[in-house]
């Protein structure tokens, strides 16, 4: 197991730590303000163009639907001799994917396979049950090649009210 690489802190004492949290709160306030301004600008632009965008999207969707319907109806004729056709404004292609199996009710399918003696078409997934393993002691976990791991983290919470008192004092 690789040793954790130690990182030296740019903050050397509690006062510097507090100053850094103050700066973070100032930046957070500025980011929030700028994001709000950006959101307002985006809403204005959306209002200006929404009708035009909606109309163009409806036209696009209708044309796309018409084209797909035509291709579906005429595919045998269109692709009788080739898998693709070059046109002036694009290319028509037909591709066939590999067939996939769709199972509507897995339990019924397994029962039917067993009834027909087709057991080689059934797989059973065997994995350790972590809920049960949690009840084992550390010695038992070691015997079964598992271990208990505790996650730890440290965090901080910024307080805007203290920032305001610092600004007033300055």
Fold and architecture overview:
- Strand 1 and strand 2 form a beta hairpin.
- The model has no long low-confidence stretch (mean pLDDT 87).
- This protein is mostly helical.
- 56% of the residues lie in helices and 5% in strands.
- It folds into 2 domains: 13-92, no CATH class; 103-147, no CATH class.
- It is built from 5 helices and 2 strands, in the order H-E-E-H-H-H-H.
- It has a two-stranded antiparallel sheet.
- The protein is flat and about 80 Å long.
- The chain has helices spanning 14-78, 106-115, 130-133, 138-143, 160-169; strands spanning 84-87, 90-93.
| Beta content | under 5%
Q: What is the strand tally?
A: 2
Intertermini distance: 50 Å
Structural class: mainly alpha
| Apparent shape | flat
Summarize the helix and strand pattern as letters.
Answer: HEEHHHH
Main sheet summary:
2 strands, antiparallel
Q: Any low-confidence stretches, pLDDT <50, length ≥5?
A: none
Mean pLDDT: 87
Number of helices: 5
Helix content: 55-70%
Q: Which strand order spans the largest sheet, edge to edge or round the barrel?
A: 1-2
Q: Mind telling me the C-alpha Rg?
A: 32 Å
Instruction: State the domain count.
Output: 2
A few lines on this structure:
By secondary structure, the chain is mainly α. It has helices spanning 14-78, 106-115, 130-133, 138-143, 160-169, and strands at residues 84-87, 90-93. The chain has two domains: 13-92, no CATH class; 103-147, no CATH class.
How are the SSEs ordered, and which strands pair?
Blueprint: H1 14-78, E1 84-87, E2 90-93, H2 106-115, H3 130-133, H4 138-143, H5 160-169
Antiparallel strand pairs: 1-2
């Amino acid at each position: 197991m690789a040793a954790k690489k130690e990182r030296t802190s740019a903050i050397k004492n509690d006062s510097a730590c507090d100053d850094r949290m103050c700066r973070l709160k100032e930046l957070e306030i500025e980011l929030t303000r700028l994001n709000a301004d950006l959101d307002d600008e985006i809403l204005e632009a959306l209002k200006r163009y929404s009708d035009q965008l909606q109309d163009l999207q409806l036209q696009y969707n209708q044309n796309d639907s018409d084209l797909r319907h035509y291709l579906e109806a005429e595919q045998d004729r269109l692709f009788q001799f080739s898998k693709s056709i070059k046109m002036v404004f694009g290319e028509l292609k037909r591709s066939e994917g590999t067939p996939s199996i769709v199972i509507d009710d897995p339990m019924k399918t397994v029962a039917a396979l067993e009834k027909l003696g087709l057991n080689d078409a059934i797989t059973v997934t065997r994995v350790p049950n972590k809920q049960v393993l949690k009840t084992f002691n550390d010695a038992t976990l070691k015997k079964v090649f598992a271990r208990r791991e505790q996650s730890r983290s440290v965090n901080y919470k910024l307080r805007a009210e203290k920032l305001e008192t610092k600004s007033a004092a300055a």
